[in-house]
Amino acid sequence: MAILPDDPRVSLLDFLREHLLLAGTKKGCNQGACGACTVLVDGTRVLSCLALAVQYEGRSVTTIEGLAGDDLHPLQAAFIEHDGFQCGYCTPGQICSVVGMMEELRRGSPSHVTADLASGTIALTPDEVRERLSGNLCRCGAYNGIVDAVCSTYAEAAE
User: Fold this and answer.
1) How many domains, in total, are found in the chain?
2) Are both 51 and 116 inside the same structural domain?
3) pLDDT given at position 6
4) 24 lies in which domain range?
5) I want to staple 148 with a disulfide (CB 3.0 to 4.6 A). Which of 21, 59, 82, 139 is the partner?
6) pLDDT at position 2, please?
7) In sequence order, what are the beta bridge partners of 61?
């Protein structure tokens, strides 16, 4: 991470947006309820509005800007293909959350709707996606496209 701000009370979200000028991460509710500010810290999803920048010194923080290389991240392309966004405000947080969620699935971390808790492999069903993304709100109601984008990306990644 870059040089930290002098004030240790600066949130990770404000640090990213105002100090590093990475405006892809959105400030939604600023209370951790909407998921628009979701980023990845060492591959784990974090609500950046609830985190202090100083907590993450020396750790790998990935925003939506860091997911794509020369081409779109496969999930970004799937969001476009499956109409997984309308206004796009929640999209960066949704995508970062999904990338973190997919790592949770690879580790075998169950959710509330996981059918077989003893299984090391969790099937990515639409219900599983909805449950795992329940903390990411979309005011436009693009949930069906988001679920389709996630399922198609996961299916392609599993092949």
Assistant:
1) 2
2) no
3) 83
4) 12-67
5) 82
6) 62
7) 41
Whole-angstrom Cα Rg for the chain:
16
Q: Which two tokens stand for residue 156?
A: 């392609």
Residue 41 is classified by DSSP as E
* pLDDT tens-digit readout, 32-54: 999 999 999 999 999 999 999 99
Sheet with 38-41: strands ordered across = 44-47, 38-41, 61-62
Residues 48, 37: Cα–Cα separation, whole Å: 6
The pLDDT of residue 122 is above 90 = no
Compute φ and ψ for 12, nearest 5 degrees: -60, -40
In the chain, the amino acid numbered 130 is: R
Residue type for position 159: E
CA 150-152-156 angle, 5° bins = 115
Residue 29 has pLDDT above 60, yes or no: yes
Residue in 72, 112, 70 with CA at minimum distance from that of residue 91:
72
| Average pLDDT value over all residues in the chain | 92
Tokens of 134: 């329940």
Q: Which residues of 22-39 are buried (b: 16+ CB within 10 A; e: fewer)?
A: bebbbbbeeeeebbbbbb
The CATH number that applies at residue 17 is 3.10.20.30
